[in-house]
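Narrative of activities, Objective 1.

The group set out to show that a structural description can be obtained from nothing but a protein's sequence at a throughput compatible with the screening campaign. Below is one input-output pair from the validation batch, recorded exactly as produced.
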Amino acid sequence: MARRHWWRRIIPGLSTSVRLVAIGVAVLVVAVMTVVNVMTSKNTNQPGSRAGTWNTALPSTGVPTAASSSSNAVSTDSRAYSELVRLSDQGWTATQPLTNQWVAELGSSVVVPPSQPTPTPSGSASPSGAPAALTRFESAQKNDPGAGREVRLLRRSTYNPPVVDDRFTFVIIVSGTFSTADDVRNWCSDQFGSAPPDRCDPLQLHPR
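Output recorded for this entry:
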């Protein structure tokens, strides 16, 4: 009887331990699955995670630092500035035959090279302005200026008398089929009414 009573005491104790272990394992599994679901949901809802979304941000590795952010910004400015120079060189080549011709000036941006951000005489230039200047020109190019007209980019130092900061100034123009300053004004009025995007003025080109 003593031995039988001893087994009855051990078995219930073992059953309780097993139940506690099983409960603990179940709780742990539920907790892990909950955390996984939450993390998956966050990753799915982040911008740019959907297929087909164009992402203009530079790729990053690891946790971004102040140094890496600064390096990315300089890289972006340099690429944009190089593209501004390329487009303005193309514009200069195309407008050389337009001596004394009238064009519409749609605005300008003063930008210094990111690799050598030397202060300009007017103090109005910045290397960080290159991406904005490039976007502005590309937006203007998407509009239809009309038959026989083209949207171009020029550097101010390539035409007319020198002005302050002209070697850092990129100008958006619309060229072609303008005979007089009034032709330009009429075109500006037809395109923008009384609210041009920045300015829309007659400009007579005299390449240097």
